[in-house]
Design goal:
The structure holds two protein chains of two kinds.
Chain A: H1 11-24, H2 28-31, H3 45-50, H4 56-67, H5 72-85, H6 89-102, H7 113-140, H8 143-160, H9 163-173, H10 180-197, H11 200-212, H12 217-237, H13 241-249, H14 265-279, H15 282-290, H16 293-299, H17 303-313, H18 317-326, H19 328-332, H20 341-357, E1 362-364, H21 365-372, H22 374-379, H23 389-399, E2 405-408, E3 413-416, H24 421-451
Antiparallel strand pairs in A: 1-3, 2-3
Helix pairs in contact in A: 1-9, 4-5, 4-6, 5-6, 7-8, 8-9, 9-10, 10-11, 10-12, 11-12, 12-13, 13-14, 14-17, 14-20, 15-17, 17-18
Chain B: H1 2-12, H2 22-41, H3 64-82, H4 95-106, H5 109-112, H6 116-140, H7 149-170, H8 179-191, H9 198-201, H10 245-261, H11 265-276, H12 286-303, H13 315-324, H14 326-337, H15 340-349, H16 351-356, H17 360-381, E1 382-386, H18 387-394, H19 401-413, E2 419-422, E3 432-435, H20 443-476, H21 479-492, H22 506-517
Helix pairs in contact in B: 2-3, 3-4, 4-7, 6-7, 6-8, 7-8, 8-10, 10-11, 10-12, 11-12, 12-14, 12-17, 14-15, 15-17
The chains are: A mainly alpha, B mainly alpha.
């Protein structure tokens, strides 16, 4: 069966892509500033990590180990075990170094030099062997063998942590794919590599190719959940939370445990719920999230998210924010959420203040502070003074145009602005009339000046004149 | 004395001629002007030149032309005798000055249209005389203290008033730019009598005197009732001296300065906008650059932001402005940024520049405008706050509460800020500033005020529409337009209508046919 690629491209194109990816690759999850999470998270480390398979296990363990002082030893030890069971030497070394910082006396905190040496040698011979085999296949010109050769090499690089080489190898497979299945499996591998590298643009483009691939309807339906999940994840990482929320909400419930190397159904519920909370208003939340038949299956896994959204929809912002606050440490220890939590929480908070204000024409600052800043109410003498952080937050929101209200510091009120339509119309009419008149006069005069031949032009044989007007030395003195 | 009776009988032709058809009147008045020009060239009038009582034979209201010519001759004679352009008789309170003033306040507008050149020379002389008088007295009183300065300002004011009244008498719409416009604003600026120029400045200028050949020369005579003054204020009439681009640029710049002095920022911006957007073949006049500098500052005062030049300004001119008015633009950015410290620093740093450009007065007003803009902006965030809190928001360094309070109350009194100051009961706390919302405005006065403003804008718009038609008409009859119409027709072939010109090409078709036949 003869198939073409979704986007037909020559071998040179594939190489170029790979080179480009190598350049733009960012190892974002690990390169960012370290977040320290002092509070104890609510999850149990063992059961948490048991949900995942593949290389993400190590990444997650390592992140928890470096970010949470409480769990660091356990998590890093598990990470070391994870790394030793694979063939990735650099990961092992990194985990041991991290452990040596937190628990220098631990037996695992010193490098097992023999293992490192042995594994390195093994990896090297294996690479050489696979490359040799691939050359042999290429000489024989059998497409399928070449494809498998590339795939083996890619898998090998992926396992040993050489992600750039892995994605290069996978992208070279493209020219030798003969069936739609080959293409989808190759693209999924590329998505996985790109996800781990944090290269979300590449995830997005590969997801796009996956959507356009001409596989059989059965296969397409089976892959749809994974494709949507990958796309949603990349949208979230690019900061477009509304699109991400819609993608998460549209993930079919048959995702199950199929995609545990990247995302679990619990993650879908949490990510989707938070993105939706941060980007949708109350009606949309009720309609698209709580009443959604498909997303209900995910939400049942994380009931507190469901409760938070329900509270938000019922105007109980304090309870909603409390739940989110309680789970903040958990989310900060999540490999994908960590970078977005501050932004997401800020948006949710802003949105709840905005929604809170809608039904009122005036609200006392005290009652607002009780809901949105309970710690300030308890801790400070004048919770509604101009210098209090809560009032400053409101000031910021008003100046950004989020809140259409004004603060009355005498009576301690937040007064919503009521626009007097009549006065507004009068004002804008007068203003536009004036602007029109001015502009029209300018233009008429402009025409009159041109007609009278009085435009500013260089004058022959003129010195500096009165000192008022002189020739400006620009371009050629054409008259 | 026969000459006198000749003159009287000649001018008597015009008396009671209101019932005459306008072409007959036109013919008679042309004859009369011709007669006087002839008398003038043959020096026949010289015999009356020194006769002070001779002028009293004429009433400028009905005998404007004889009065004007005789006055001219008398002034010339006085100039010759004293070998001085401005003899003492012509100075304010002099004999000739009184006659000139009498004429300029009473002349007949229609008659003078025929003697535009003589009228202009008289107006210019009056202007020069009052200016020179103030110069002389300034020199004379130099040793005295400043209180005399008021006296020296009075004399240009005398001249300015005369020039203004004469201009309005000749052309009540003042829609055509003449050299007298420039003379008037210059006199007013010198006299510091800014509101004196307003009756003329407030009339919008739409036209420039056009040469006779291009003027749309209908059958109507000069004396007829013209819808627009552009048809009798032509280049040939001599009402205006030969104009250059500098004249009108200066006029609008000076006019803008008059408005600035009166703190009518919006009008000032409009005038400066005219100068900034003046069409240019390539070079940029320094007057325009000067105007742009003022434009930036006035824009800050009126709108609180850096205004971009009018959309019709050519791009290369804008670039020149931006490079030549760099300090002003930086100042405007500091203002927009809302940082008082930076603004102060910028003003300090550019002190030399402001002084050299004579813009220091405007710059010092910018600081005050900054305060009011910030307070008004705070009114959008707060409904009420204490003055102490306010000063914390506005000033980076602590300021005495009384300073802020007095500044705020002066803002409220000047109606720049719609708010009330409330004294709280316990005097320990600082007083409360409450911004009013739009609701609590005194509705009735506000509405009637608005209505009158709308009406005024409507009047302006009506004038604009009329003059737009006029301009359109003039442009349609200009050589350039006919040329391009012709070209367009040649290009597009005989049976296609030029898409640019559209249906109006019908008129041109006839001419072409004629061309073929001849």
């Amino acid at each position: 069966m003869d198939t073409t690629l979704p986007d037909a491209s020559g071998s040179s194109r594939a190489d170029m892509d790979a080179a480009l990816e190598a350049n733009t690759a960012v190892t974002a999850p690990r390169a960012g500033v370290l977040v320290k999470v002092e509070e104890a998270p609510k999850f149990d480390l063992d059961t948490y990590i048991a949900n995942y398979t593949g290389r993400t296990r190590y990444d997650r363990l390592y992140l928890i180990g470096t970010c949470s002082p409480l769990l660091s030893t356990d998590a890093l030890k598990a990470a070391i075990a994870e790394a030793r069971s694979s063939k990735d030497v650099s990961r092992y070394e990194r985990a041991v170094r991290a452990l040596a910082e937190v628990a220098p006396n631990d037996p695992d905190a010193s490098l097992d030099a023999a293992w490192v040496q042995e594994t390195t040698r093994y990896v090297q011979t294996q690479t050489e062997r696979l490359e040799h085999e691939l050359r042999g296949y290429k000489n024989n010109l059998i497409k399928e063998s070449i494809r498998m050769g590339h795939e083996d090499l890619g898998n090998h690089h992926y396992e040993t942590g050489d992600l750039a080489a892995a994605s290069k190898a996978y992208s070279r497979m493209r020219d030798y794919c003969t069936t739609p299945n080959h293409i989808t499996s190759m693209l999924f591998k590329m998505v996985n590599v790109a996800t781990e590298r944090g290269d979300w643009m590449s995830v997005q483009s590969n997801v796009h190719r996956l959507r356009n691939s001409q596989s059989k309807p059965d296969d397409a339906a089976k892959n749809l959940s994974k494709i949507t999940a990958a796309s949603a994840l990349s949208q979230m990482h690019q900061g477009s939370y509304l699109e991400a929320a819609n993608s998460f909400l549209s993930i079919p419930p048959d995702l199950g445990d199929n995609y545990n190397e990247v995302i679990t159904p619990n993650d879908v519920a949490v990510y989707g719920g938070l993105c939706a909370l941060a980007s949708m208003d109350r009606d949309d939340l009720q309609k698209n999230v709580l009443d959604s038949q498909t997303f209900r299956n995910f939400l049942e896994l994380e009931p507190h998210i469901r409760r938070a959204i329900a509270f938000f929809c019922n105007f109980k912002f304090r309870q909603c924010l409390d739940i989110l606050e309680a789970y903040r440490p958990d989310y900060l220890l999540d490999i994908h959420l960590q970078r977005h939590i501050p932004q997401l929480y800020k948006r949710i908070r802003t949105k709840s203040i905005e929604q809170y204000m809608i039904p009122f024409s005036r609200v006392t600052l005290d009652s607002m502070a009780k809901i949105f800043a309970p710690t300030i109410v308890g801790g400070e003498a004048h919770p509604t003074d101009i210098s209090s952080p809560f009032v400053q937050e409101l000031v910021g929101l008003i100046q950004d145009g989020v809140l259409n209200a004004r603060i009355d510091l005498e009576k301690g009120l937040l007064v919503s602005n009521q626009i007097d339509l009549r006065a507004e119309v009068q004002r804008t009419t007068l203003e536009s009339l004036r602007e029109f008149n001015e502009e029209a006069h300018w233009r008429i005069l402009h025409a009159a000046v041109l007609e009278a031949g009085l435009e500013v032009k260089p004058e022959k044989g003129e010195g500096s004149g009165l000192g008022k007007a002189g020739r400006f030395p620009r371009g050629s003195g054409r008259d | 004395m026969t000459l006198l009776s000749d003159i009287i009988s000649a001018s008597a032709h015009l008396h009671n001629s209101n019932h005459l058809p306008s072409d007959e009147y036109d013919r008679r008045i042309r004859e009369l002007v011709e007669y006087f020009r002839r008398l003038q060239s043959t020096k026949a009038l010289d015999s009356f030149a020194s006769d002070g009582t001779f002028l009293s034979n004429f009433d400028p209201v009905i005998d404007s032309i004889p009065y004007l010519f005789v006055l001219r001759v008398q002034i010339q004679k006085a100039q010759e005798i004293n070998t001085n352009v401005l003899p003492a008789d012509l100075r304010p309170s002099g004999k000739l000055w009184t006659c000139a003033a009498h004429f300029l306040t009473n002349f007949d507008g229609v008659q003078v249209r025929y003697a535009g050149r003589e009228w202009r020379l008289l107006v210019e002389l009056v202007g020069q005389a009052s200016q020179a008088a103030s110069m002389a007295s300034r020199l004379f009183f130099q040793s005295y203290s400043g209180s005399i300065a008021n006296l020296t300002l009075l004399q240009p004011l005398l001249g300015a008033k005369l020039v203004r009244d004469a201009m309005l008498r000749l052309d009540p719409s003042c829609a055509v730019f003449t050299s007298s416009h420039l003379l008037l604003v210059r006199l007013c600026l010198q006299a510091k009598a800014y509101s004196c120029a307003l009756p003329v400045l407030d009339k919008q200028i739409f036209h420039f005197p056009i040469s006779q050949g291009r003027a749309f020369s209908g059958p109507s005579a000069l004396c007829a009732d013209h819808a627009s003054s552009v048809s009798f204020m032509t280049e040939a009439s001599g009402v205006s001296s030969k104009l250059s681009y500098r004249d009108y640029l200066q006029y609008f710049l000076y006019g803008g300065m008059v408005y600035m002095a009166l703190k009518e920022w919006r009008n000032a911006l409009h005038f400066l906008g005219i100068v900034i957007s003046a069409p240019s073949t390539n070079p940029v006049s320094l007057i325009m650059v000067e105007a742009y500098k003022k434009w930036v500052l006035v824009g800050l005062l009126e709108k609180g932001k850096l205004c971009s030049p009018p959309s019709i300004t050519t791009p290369h001119v804008v670039k020149v402005y931006q490079s030549l008015a760099r300090p002003y633009i930086i100042l405007a950015h500091a203002f927009e940024h809302g940082d008082l410290k930076r603004l102060d620093a910028e003003i300090d740093a550019g002190k030399g520049v402001w002084c050299a450009d004579n813009n220091f007065g405007l710059v010092s007003q910018v600081v005050g405008a900054f305060f009011s803009q910030t307070v008004i902006k705070l009114g959008k965030t707060f409904a009420a706050l204490t003055v102490a809190d306010l000063s914390k928001q506005v000033f980076p360094s602590p300021v005495c509460a009384d300073v802020t309070r007095s500044a705020v109350s002066s803002l409220i009194i000047s109606r720049a800020l719609n708010a009330t100051l409330v004294q709280t009961k316990d005097h320990a706390e600082s007083s409360m500033l409450r911004f009013s919302s739009i609701h609590s405005l005194p509705r009735l006065s506000y509405e009637s005020d608005l209505q009158s403003q709308l009406k005024q804008e409507m009047r302006i718009m009506e004038a604009l529409v009329i003059n737009l038609g006029e301009t359109n008409n003039n442009l349609g009859l200009s050589d350039e337009y006919v040329d391009s119409l012709h070209k367009g027709q040649v290009w597009s072939g005989s049976n296609e209508v030029n898409p640019i010109v559209g249906g109006e090409a019908g008129l041109e078709m006839d001419e072409d046919l004629m061309g073929d036949m001849s």
